[in-house]
Fold Deoxyribose-phosphate aldolase.
Amino acid sequence: MIDFDNKKQVAKAIQYTNVNPNLTKEGLLKHLETCVKYDFDAAMIAPCYVSLAKEVLKGTGIKVATTLNFPQANDTLEMKLAALKALVKVEPDQFDFPPNPGLLIGGREKEYFEEMKQIVEVSHAAGIVVKSMLEFGFLNEKQKVRAAQLACEAGIDWVKQSSGWGVGGCAATVEDVKILKENIQLPCRVKVSGKVNTLEKMQAMFAAGAELVGTSSGPAICDGLAGDPNAY
Ligand SMILES: O=C[C@H](O)COP(=O)(O)O
């Protein structure tokens, strides 16, 4: 567990996110500048900006994290793998992707699992860390448990209860973080996201088992201010 009185440790548990489709190159550069200023763990940005972010953040130790088939989740596996092939070429350190919730809800666990497994295999071979956004807003209790277990079995590095963009109130809850934590084992770990916009909320999520947070309120959290609840 990090020391929440230590700003450096707090910053190093934050992946500062701006994956808005209307983000311009200038906006991206400002975002990266903020990542450097606070020394966040990662800049979480859209795939179209990975190359530029890699160049700008070179030597800072700040990771470049991005997304795959985000936020919709329902491309075919073939499409996801083709996009992944292109993503591997621009060398992000990590990416977050949503496995298709409809497969799990429809009882097609094998396909749900297989999708994650194949994505993990390609990514790990390229040295890329993979996080699954399990979109708990779509799932009932039993499905949430299975989603976490299957992601862990498939070799996913980090499970996350939501992209922060899904349905069903995508705001993170302590209960959902606990479900993740209780249904995975190391080396799989828990990332949380969705309206985690204050230090207090981050602290509560970490007490429940999260070790990383994806948030658009990184600076506000570090400065002890309230983040923008309507950031997205
Ligand atoms: O980490 C991903 C989400 O987009 C976070 O957004 P949010 O902090 O505005 O809820």
